[in-house]
Structures are given as structure tokens and as C-alpha cells.
Amino acid sequence: MQDSSRRGFMGKAFGAVAAVGALGSLVAMKSSWDPLPSVKEAGFTTLDMSIYEEGVMVTEKWRGKPIFVLKKSASTMEKEKGNAAAEARNIKVGDSNFMVAIGLCTHLGCIPAFRADSNDFKCACHGGEFTASGLVQKVPPPRGFDIPPFKIEGNKLVLGEVGPEFKKMKDTGITL
Amino acid sequence: MAHFTKATSVKDWLNQRLAVDKVEKVMASEYWIPKNINFLWAMGMVLLITFSLLLCSGIFLLMYYVPTVEGAFYSVNYTIMREVGFGWLWRHIHGVAASVVFLIMYIHMFTGIYYGSYKKGREMIWLSGMLLFIAFSTEAFSGYMLPWGQMSYWAGMVITNLFAGGSLHADGLVEWIRGDYVPAQAFLGRFFMLHVVLVPVAILGLIGLHFAALRIPHVNNQDGEEIDFEAESKKYLAGDKAGSKVMRFANDFLSKDMMVVGIYLLFFFYLVFYNYGFAMDPVNFDPADGLKTPAHIYPEWYFLWSYEILRPFPIDTGLVLFGLAQGIFVALPFLDRSPNAVPASRRGLFKIWFWAMLCNMILLTSMGKLPPEGIFSQIGLVSAILFVVLWVLLPIITTFEKKL
């Protein structure tokens, strides 16, 4: 009965107007919470890879996140030999080999500390550990360090741009 | 239109327009409370008073707080603490109350669980109470961000990362929540808004709902006795105050309520003046630094039990169990299959369940504070598993509980 009455029609008409309005305002509200364009544009960092010393872990900054840069020594390279997972993560710039990764624990995002004597990383928050190649040594972290998008340009590494080496890592599932 | 006559007094003038006498009766003098209760029934009023303290102290803090990543730390630790007259008092009241309000909420909750006050028509009281608990948790977390110290920043980082959903890698969602790749200005701004507007407004509404949910089923009593409030209140009004099982909310019950509140306030202000340190983490007195994690990141004590359920497992299992722990108390009225609304002491296995749950929560809380190493990891793991097992057991043991 009510469906065919004028009141029923008015109810439906209002419902339709309100639904469009509600949907529109949801779109606006969602967009208001998106990262601002200025935040997105500031997302590139260039590193000069010739300045690093072997076995010294340096923390750089990209998109507000710490980036671990570790120039691997010959003995570390020797240890990695045969470990396919570790070798696939190696970044070669010129003649030097690097571990470059986002320095956040893949568990919940704390910054693991580098332990120079044992040449590995330990996260204080939940006890996760990573090797010098960035692989998980002790859970809870679900995977090794994420590798930031990078592009090799001579002796320089541009973070935020996708080069062929990074694309290969991403396609083979070495990093996210 | 209603007919108005010339008022004989101010009260009569108000009565004609607002029915103040009627409102007073409905809300206070003829709102009936059972006599058979104890001091634990005063926790609701204690919570209301604590919330008022949070609101008042918050208003004063709000006048000087600056919600920017450059200015926040300074405005709290210099302007409010050193320049504003009695600014330290508002901050210490706010910090202590934020911590103590959870202690009282847990006592309030476990009182309800012990006496079966979530059953037989009182389900809405429990559900609205749990919504309040969630709202207060959001309020506590968002407020913790505002001083923008090291713990603010890293707690913000860790908690927002939970929304990536482990293996789901919903990094876009996390960036959307933060408005940046890491917690920064956009993040601080929106949590400031949540803390001072949206969540407090929701809390006010939920308190209204919580009180409204009490009206029809009335307050429970120490024996879970079903009282005929209609008949008992008539007896009271007819003059048989001693024989009636109920009393007026005001001033009868309220006078005892406020006695408990008085004792509580002495304890509360002792903490504010002499022992506020527990509510002020020393790590948060270092300004936020996105490139330096504190040695141990732990939440405030009231979140430790659920944090400890997250911690010992691989990320996905941990997240699922953490989500379960956060939500499971809401389902209590439906998981408890027994119709007995009496104290746990008379409910056989449920009595053991109650004390096991309470002790286990305390154990989880203590383990959550300790670094995740060695024997503590093991105890935490067992304790977390026990938490899940207890909830699985609840419907089973209550189904077979003898009807009283």
C-alpha cells in the first residue's frame, strides 16, 4: 500500500537524494585523508655510493623512513655464497656490493639496531633478528627487510625510482 | 498549545515549561536501586567523576597545546609545564586520570562478569559498556600521540602498522590513515582532532546510551535476585522503607556512592601530587625521532595484556589473536550459555573460569612489560594460549552448568 502512496514516493525520493549525498561526502572525506601532493613529491633521495666504508652500517633517510646502507666486506660476500636468497638481494654498484633496505622491522615497523660484533640486526620491540643480508634470522618478522625502489646511475643510487635491477627483485618476489 | 498560568514561584514557572519536578523524580528520587549491593556498585560514579576530571583538565590543556610536529613537544613540556600557572596540575590530572580510568573500568567490567550483570535483559548494558571501553581506548591512544615524544611517535608507528593486516600488506591503507609514509604532521593533526572532538563526542553519547540501558533491567544486586521494582518501590513510598528491597537513587544511594568517590579522590589526588610518575613514561620526554627506535616499545599498562597476545606469534597469527582478544569481551553475554545470573562463587566451573581469566590477564599484563626474552617469552606464550583456550571453554562449561 505505502509503496504506491505519495508518502512512499517522497520517502524513496529523499532516500535517493540522501544516498547520493552520503556517497559523495564519503568520497570527499576519504580524499581529505589521502597523503598531500607535497608529501608525495618529496619522495626521492639520491645516495652517492662511493663514500661508504666496508662493514660500517649507515642510516640514510627516504620518505621519512630510515634506509640501511651496508657495504659488504669480502668475508660477508664469502659467507653469502651459495645462499640464493641472500645473493638475490645483493645490490652491486660499480665493484662494490651493498645491502640497501628500508630499516624498519617487517613485523610492526620498529628500527632494528645493527650489532657490529655479530654483524646482524636485532629489533628491540618484539625480539626479531635479521642477518647482514637483510634476511630473517629470528621471528616474529614475516620476511626480510623490504628493499626501497632504486635505480643505479653510475656511482649513484636514486631511491624512489624503479630501475631494472629493482624491477627484477620485485618480479621475483625478493621484495614487496 | 498547552495552557500556561501565571507562575506562583520560579520553580512553578520552570515546572510549567520544563517539568523539572517530574524530571527530578524520574532521574533521581524515584529511580530505584537495590539495597543488597556493595562498594563495587559505586564504580560507575567513580568513572563518571574521573571522566569529568579528564574533560576539565583537557579543556585547560587544549588552550595552550599546539598541534604541530614542531611545536607540540615544546608546548607540552615547556609552555604547559613551566609557564602556564598550574599547567602542571592539569597535565598531571589528565595523565593520571587517563591511566586510573582504565583501572576502574577493568574493576567495573570484572564486577559485572563476577555477578553476571550482563544477562537476563542486561545485555545492552554490557554492549554499550564495551563500546565505551573501545572509545576510551581510542581516546587514550590518540591522546598518547599528542606530546609528540619518542613513545608517541613509535607507538603511532607500530599501531598504525597493525592496519597493514600482516601478509595482506595493505600499505596503502596505512599511508591513508597516516596521511604520509610515516607519522608526521597530517597524522598528528588528525589524531588531535579525534582526541579533542570526535571521540569525546562519541563518549558522551555512549554514556547516555549506557545509562539508558540501565533503566529497564535496573541495577543488578549481590545475589542476582530478580526484584519486582514496581512492588518494592510502592512499598518504599508507602512508608515501609526498612521492608522494601530498594532505595532511592538520590539521596539514599548517592550518599554512599559519593562516600566511595570521596575515598577514591583522596587516592587519586595522592597520585596526582606525589606519585604521578607511573603515568609519565620517561622515554616520552625525548622529542620524536623517526630515525631512532627506543630500546623497548611498550604500551601503557592497560594495553599490555592484548599486546602480549600479539607478541609471541608470527605476525598473521598474532594479528588474528590480537583482534580476537580486542573483540571477544563484547561477545560475553552470548558465549556464556548459562541462564544463572548469580555470583560466580555459586556457579561451579564458572567460578574457576572467572579467577583463571582474571589471573591470566594480570599475568599477561606483567609479561607484556618485560622484554621478550628467555623465560618471559615462554610464560607469555603459554599465557596467551591459555587466554584463547579459556574463551573456547566458556560456552562449553556454561552449557553444562547446573541450573539454579
Describe the structure in your own words:
- The complex is a heterodimer of chains A (about 180) and B (about 400).
- By secondary structure, chain A is of the alpha+beta class.
- Chain A folds into 2 domains: about 35 residues; about 130 residues, Rieske [2Fe-2S] iron-sulphur domain (Rieske Iron-sulfur Protein, 3-layer Sandwich).
- Chain A is built from 5 helices and 11 strands.
- Chain A starts with 5 loop residues before the first helix and ends in a 5-residue tail after the last helix.
- The model of chain A has no long low-confidence stretch (mean pLDDT about 85).
- Chain B has 2 domains: about 260 residues, Cytochrome Bc1 Complex, Chain C; about 110 residues, no CATH class.
- In chain B, about 65% of the residues lie in helices and about 0% in strands.
- A two-stranded antiparallel sheet of chain B has the order 1-2.
- At the A-B interface, loops of A face α7, α8 and α13 of B.
- Largest interface by residue count? A-B, 31 and 39 residues
Helix content of chain A: 25-40%
The biggest sheet of chain A amounts to: 4 strands, antiparallel
Could you give the distance between the termini of chain B? 55 Å
What is the radius of gyration of chain A computed over CA atoms, rounded to a whole number of angstroms? 24 Å
CATH architecture term of the largest domain in chain B: Up-down Bundle
CATH topology of the largest domain in chain A, anyone?
Answer: Rieske Iron-sulfur Protein
**Poorly predicted segments of chain A:** none
CATH homologous superfamily heading of the largest domain in chain A? Rieske [2Fe-2S] iron-sulphur domain
Fraction of helical residues of chain B: 55-70%
- The helix/strand order of chain B is HHEHHHHHHHHEHHHHHH
CATH topology of the largest domain in chain B: Cytochrome Bc1 Complex, Chain C
Largest sheet of chain B: 2 strands, antiparallel
Number of helices of chain A: 5
In the sheet with the most strands of chain B, the strands line up as: 1-2
The overall pLDDT of chain B, averaged over residues, is 93
Shape, principal axes of CA atoms of chain B: globular
Tell me the distance between the termini of chain A.
58 Å
